[in-house]
Amino acid sequence: MEVVIVQDAKAGGELVAQGIADLLRRRPDALLGVATGSTPLPVYRALAARVRAGTADVSRARIAQLDEYVGLPAGHPESYRSVVMRTVLKPLGLSPESFIGPDGSAEDVRAACEAYETALTAAGGVDLQLLGIGTDGHIGFNEPCSSLASRTRIKTLTEQTRADNARFFDGDIEQVPQHVITQGIGTILEARHLVLLATGEGKAEAVAATAEGPVAAVCPASALQLHPHATVVVDEAAASKLKLAGYFRHAYAHKPAWQDL
Predict the structure, then answer these.
(1) Which CATH number does 2-253 carry?
(2) CA–CA separation, 29 vs 185, rounded Å?
(3) Does residue 196 contact residue 221 with C-beta atoms inside 8 Å?
(4) Structure confidence by residue, pLDDT tens digits, 192-224
């Protein structure tokens, strides 16, 4: 696992955006897996700035959604489909046709999960999956003790995750849905490159457990240790509990980060 420590969230966003731009130069129709929440926003802003400047071409890129709330009506501003349209597709000038994602408003949610797995396979698989991490170590909505071999499925959110996400629902936890569709950990691990971005002191313990702890279902993100190409990009605050922080800084002082993307 590569662990890259950057100065702050903006620097992390710039690094990841440049990595995506480089990937699209080599593979213009790459399927990019995107995450929602506040952490990846600097990535999307930095990538959009490159598009406007003419230094990145995303015209043939395809976008895949990581997860979705169950039960929100179509077009709800906090459905993850709406968030991806607003924060990723629109700023990058991509059409809805470039997007695939699970249907959280489907009557048969189990069938919607299976349909999304099929769609990812038909698209050739995810080339780069961007991930955030929860304070409890979850990735996507794979809460602690999720199976490390799990596939896209419906999950019940913990109260901690609902509380963390209440800020997107006017601070009211009662408005946060109790169920979600999420790519499973096994599904996530099939992406060719996993990029986990974490910022802020509140993520420090989860980052340390992910990078330095045992591979264990209690910290779902620790499954990234099993992946042949996983990159963890953290700011100084999120790196504050890493025992090997000095080693990681030294390693990337002597070669450019993000090699062999």
Answers:
(1) 3.40.50.1360
(2) 24
(3) yes
(4) 999 999 999 999 999 999 999 999 999 999 999
Token representation of residue 247: 């080693």
Cβ distance 180 to 69 under 8 Å?
Answer: yes
User: pTM for the whole thing?
Assistant: 0.93
Reply yes or no on whether 67 is catalytic. Answer: yes
Specify whether 8 is catalytic.
Answer: no
Q: Which residue has the tokens 């408003």?
A: 105
Query: Would you tell me how many other CB atoms lie within 10 Å of the CB of residue 174?
Result: 8
**Is 143 assigned a catalytic role?**
yes
Quote the mean pLDDT of the chain.
Answer: 93
CA atoms within 13 Å, Cβ hemisphere of 15: 25
Closest CA to 141 of 205, 80, 91: 80
Among residues 80, 123, 73, 116, the alpha carbon closest in space to that of 98 is found at 123
Catalytic residue among 103, 138, 193, 235: 138
